[in-house]
Amino acid sequence: MPLPRFDRLPTERREHILGVARRHFAEHGAEGASYNKIIEAAGVSKTAAYHYFDGREDLLTAVLDGVQGRLLDALGPWEPARDADDFGARFAAGSAALATHLSDHPEDLALTDAAIGRTSGGPWLGWFGALVTDGRRIGLIRDDVDHALMVSATAAVVRAADAWALTLMTTAPGTGDPGGQLWTLLRGLWGAPAAGQEPNDAH
Questions:
Q1: Which of 120, 126, 146, 147 reaches 20 to 30 Å from 36, CA-CA?
Q2: What's the whole-model pTM score?
Q3: C-alpha 203 chain-centroid distance
Q4: Could you give the 3-state DSSP secondary structure of residue 172?
């Protein structure tokens, strides 16, 4: 995380530095961007840079935290669903909002996999935790698997589907059916009832 002196900079200056870093990481990759070139492009001396960040990894973490925060903002908080249909509609709406955000913000798109891949908990898994809890409440998600394991498995499936969808978005825009494919995978994982069954009949 940034050092305290960075947090004391004016908001516009902080956003400028992180914006320049985000562009470099997006263009050259999370592991390939040069720290020296980033701080030079941002107009920050090496001496000042080390008062703001512990080094390249610290700056990268700040950038990826920002990407993850914007992804969660696009998804919005998970709100309890009325029933299975409402649950599916809410999930589809969140997925569509996320896809729109990524389409409109190519730098976030380029860094999404890195931002999610570094996550071992925190707000990202918190969102999936709320989703799984709600899905179990309405009988859509099986409850014979440990809650934490189901949350991690759901997040992993979504991440795999996102990586596939992100590839489509960058190499073949407008092809495939990311939302439908993801929903099929998740219903299999969750042990969702077959078409025509009521959600609570799955147990």
A1: 120
A2: 0.79
A3: 31
A4: coil
